[in-house]
Amino acid sequence: MTGQPSFADGMTSSPHYQLELTPQATLLQMRSEDGTNRLTLARVRSLTAVIQELALAPRPLVITGNSQFFSVGADLNEVASLTGSAAFEFALQGQALMNAIAQFPAVVYAAIEGHCMGGGLDLALACHRRIAAPHTAFGHRGAALGLMTGWGGTQRLPRLIGPARALQVLVAAARVNAAHALRIGLVDGVVEDPVAEALQRIAKNA
Questions:
Q1: Which whole number is the average pLDDT over 77-89?
Q2: Mean of the pLDDT values across residues 153-164?
Q3: Which end of the chain is more exposed for a tag (fewer CB within 10 A), N or C?
Q4: Is the pLDDT of residue 141 over 80?
C-alpha cells in the first residue's frame, strides 16, 4: 500500500478509473477505452488496490460508470482462456474486489446508468446503496452462457430481493429495468442523475 491516492485539483486517474474528491464523498468513475468498463483481471486488481487505499482514510464513496455502461462485467474472452488454477485465481481476485467494497468503512453508493450486467451487477450488489437512472438495465447472463458468477452475486442478490426473484436473474437470465428494480428492492432510488442523488443523500446523513 502506498497510502491515500494523491489528488491534484481534487482529481486523479488511471487507465481503469478516475477519482474525484467532492465535498461530500470520493467519486470513483470506472473507465475503459471502449466505454463498457469490462472487469478484466487488470481492472479488477486496479480497482481493488485503489479501494483498499481509500479505506485507509475512509470517507463516503460513490462508484459509477458512464451514461451508457456502469459495467458489462467480466471480459468473456479473457474468461474463456482461463483453465484450472488461473480460473480459480480470477474468482478470488473478483471476490477480493467485492469484499473490499462491501467491507469499506464508510458508506458506498453505486450510481448506475445504462448496462449493469454480470460482474458489474456483482459490483453494484457489493455496494451498500444503489441509485439508478431510468434507462438502467440489470442482468446476469452467465447461466445462459454456461457460467455462474463466483464473485458473490449468488449470495448478495437473494438476500436483497429474495431467492425466487434472484433465481429469475441468475438462472433464467432475466433482465430487470430500473422501475422494476425499484419495486423489488434491487435499488434504493431511480432518478435522472444518480451521482447527484447519491451525493445529496450522503450530505443529508453527514
A1: 75
A2: 93
A3: N
A4: no
Note the pTM of the prediction, 2 decimals.
0.90
Ordered DSSP codes for 151-162: SSHHHHHHHHH-
Packing angle, helices 153-161 and 119-126, rounded to 10: 60
- Strand positions, DSSP E, the chain: 11-13, 17-21, 26-30, 61-64, 69-71, 108-112, 115-117, 129-132, 137-139, 176-177, 189-190
The predicted pLDDT at position 91 comes to 82
d(CA 105, CA 43): 22
Q: What is the predicted pLDDT for the residue at 145?
A: 60
Q: Which of 17, 16, 60 is nearest to 195 (CA)?
A: 60
Do 130 and 124 meet the contact criterion of CB atoms below 8 Å apart? yes
Q: Is residue 7 scored above 70 in pLDDT?
A: no
Distance set, CA 180 to CA 34, 129, 203, 206 (Å): 28, 16, 27, 30
DSSP for residue 176: E
160 or 146: which carries more pLDDT confidence?
A: 160
Does residue 147 register a pLDDT over 70?
no
Question: Backbone phi, then psi, for 198, in 5-degree steps?
Answer: -60, -45
Give the rounded distance of the alpha carbon of 76 from its chain centre. Answer: 17
Using CA of residue 156, residue 158, residue 162, residue 167, what is the dihedral sign? positive
Q: What is the distance between the alpha carbons of residues 125 and 185, in angstroms, rounded to a whole number?
A: 11
- C-alpha 165/C-alpha 99 separation (Å) is 23
